Structure formats: C-alpha cells, structure tokens
Amino acid sequence: MKKQIYRYKKNLGLGAMSALTLSALLMALPLVSHAQEPVTGVENPDLLFTSSDPKLHANKQVVYHIVKDLLEAGHWEMAGKYLSKRYLQHNPNAASGLDGVVRYFVDVRKVQATPIPEKMAKPVVAVIAEGDLVTVMYPLPVRDKTTGQLLYTTTWFDTWRIVDGKADEHWDSALKN
C-alpha cells in the first residue's frame, strides 16, 4: 500500500510539473503564433507578366500595363486602351464603367500622372493567369495609425477578367472607405 501511495505522489508530482510546463508554453503560444515571414516582392516583377501560352501572355500584358501605366504612373487618359467601356468594378469605392473608374482615380483620389517607368517599380509577389483571369499579388505593409511604425506585412490581391484584349471586370479586397 505504501508503495502505491509513493507512486501516486511521484506521478502527481510529474503531472503537476508537466501541467505547469504546458501552461507556460500555452501562455507563450500567442506571442509565437503572431510571428510571420514578411511578404516581399520579387526582384524583377516585369518577368512575372509573361507566359509561354500566347493567350495567357496577352492577358498578362494587359494587366501589366494597367498596373504600370495606370496604377503606378497615373496615366488614366490611356485607360480606354486597357479597360473595356463596361468595366465591372467590385471595389466598393469605385464605380463601374470606364468613365466611373477614371473619375475615381482622377477626381476622387486626385492621382497625378508621372512618367511611365521603363520597368515596374511596384513590388509584386506573384502573377497567376488562368483562362481569362489574371491575379496580381502585392506586399501590403500594415502600419500603426498613430506612429506609422510597420506592424506586419500581408498580401493584397487584384484580379481582372480579360475580354477581347481589355480588362472587363475587376476584384480586390478593398473595404468601403
């Protein structure tokens, strides 16, 4: 009987020690679970907008010029070259239609045109093309609203549907301003 009590006390001691160790690890877990690898762009994003498939290559090139010429350089006077007249917009801040999206960037966001760069400056993580869809993934730094300090990075997505050589529909993860 004494042996059984001794084993019980010994096992209880190990159990209590294990429980304390486990509790300490579980309390530290939230600190570890927020760690992440930063999202970064590739060295030469221009290379991502190509494909050996002629149709996918053409679609990627339309999106390349939307990103570089319109979004990066602000040349919205060229939008008709890359966007369809009906351009369906799923961003809740911009209207649909070629005129609506141009008005959003020129009149609402007050984007000023700058020289179109020879190579894209905007960091890009990946470009994925399938059928008539092209998705571009960008690093998105998230900063503290008060201090401006970088808190973490995540990924922004833009997807366009290409119809007859122009972007006809657009999705992103924007929220209503």
Describe this structure in words.
The structure is a single chain. By secondary structure, the protein is an alpha+beta fold. The protein is built from 4 helices and 5 strands, in the order H-H-H-E-H-E-E-E-E.
One letter per element, helices H and strands E, the order comes to HHHEHEEEE
- How many beta-strand runs? 5
Distance between the termini: 73 Å
The main pleated sheet reads as: 5 strands, mixed
Number of helices: 4
Spatial arrangement of strands, main beta sheet = 1-5-4-3-2
What structural class do the secondary elements suggest?
A: alpha+beta
Low-pLDDT runs of 5+ residues are 29-33
* Helical fraction: 25-40%
Radius of gyration: 26 Å
Shape field: globular
Strand percentage lies at: 15-25%
Helix/strand layout:
Blueprint: H1 2-33, H2 54-72, H3 79-82, E1 83-89, H4 98-108, E2 126-130, E3 133-143, E4 150-163, E5 166-172
Parallel strand pairs: 1-5
Antiparallel strand pairs: 2-3, 3-4, 4-5
Descriptive labels:
single chain, 177 residues, alpha+beta, five-stranded mixed sheet, 37% helix
What would you say about this model in short?
By secondary structure, the protein is α+β, with helices and mostly antiparallel strands.
